[in-house]
């Protein structure tokens, strides 16, 4: 890591990771520094690419999308996984598509209303040029979706490097 991150930077990152909408004034009060200091540090972290954006967590079930489906894609010989990835962009139910090494060339996360919707979406993926085969897993229930623990561990184990 080229940028030196001190304890204050780490605390700001953790505060924003816990709640990206937390006002900088509130973070400053909690950390006993001025809002201007927090603002400057956040801008520095954004310029360095450590903070690359802010996002929402959406409960798709509230919109009627009750199934989370994972699909492993085998790309046919003579075709490019990048070409298939470009085509997947045209299927809105594909919310994540990763280039992979191992059993699959591409691994996707889908959000679907029900099993019929999932079937139709999977068939649409199988119809893409360059897709040889797919393997599907339907998730029954999500129990862990949390990057905060990992970030805390990274910051804790790297504190000496950050100083």
CA gyration radius, whole angstroms: 21 Å
Distance between the termini: 12 Å
Write out the CATH superfamily name of the largest domain.
Answer: Lrp/AsnC effector binding domain/regulation of amino acid metabolism (RAM) domain
Q: Compute the number of helices.
A: 7
Name of the top-level CATH class of the largest domain: Alpha Beta
Looking at the structure, the CATH topology of the largest domain is Alpha-Beta Plaits
Low-confidence stretches: none
**Oligomer, anyone?**
single chain
- Note the main sheet: 4 strands, antiparallel
The secondary-structure class comes to alpha+beta
Mean pLDDT: 92
Give the DSSP E fraction (strand runs of 2 or more residues).
Answer: 15-25%
Helix proportion: 40-55%
CATH architecture field of the largest domain: 2-Layer Sandwich
Description:
This protein is 41% helix and 19% strand. It has 163 residues and is an alpha+beta fold. The protein has 2 domains: 49 residues, Arc Repressor Mutant, subunit A, CATH 1.10.10.10; 80 residues, 2-Layer Sandwich (Alpha-Beta Plaits). It has a 4-stranded antiparallel β-sheet, covered by helices on one side. Helix 1 crosses helix 3, helix 1 packs antiparallel against helix 6 and helix 2 packs across helix 3. The chain starts with 6 loop residues before the first helix and ends with a helix.
């Amino acid at each position: 890591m080229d940028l030196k991150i001190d304890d204050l930077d780490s605390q700001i990152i953790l505060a924003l990771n816990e709640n990206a909408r937390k006002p900088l004034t509130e973070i400053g009060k909690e950390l006993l520094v001025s809002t201007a200091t927090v603002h400057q540090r956040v801008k520095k972290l954004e310029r360095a690419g450590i903070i690359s954006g802010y996002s929402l967590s959406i409960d798709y079930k509230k919109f009627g999308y009750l199934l989370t489906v994972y699909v492993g894609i085998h790309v046919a010989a003579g075709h490019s996984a990048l070409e298939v990835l470009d085509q997947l962009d045209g299927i809105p139910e594909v919310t994540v598509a990763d280039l992979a090494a191992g059993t699959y060339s591409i691994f996707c996360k889908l959000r679907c209303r029900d099993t019929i919707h999932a079937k139709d979406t999977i068939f649409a993926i199988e119809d893409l040029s360059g897709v040889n085969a797919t393997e599907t897993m339907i998730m029954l229930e999500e129990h862990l979706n949390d990057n905060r623990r990992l970030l805390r561990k990274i910051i804790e184990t790297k504190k000496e490097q950050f100083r």
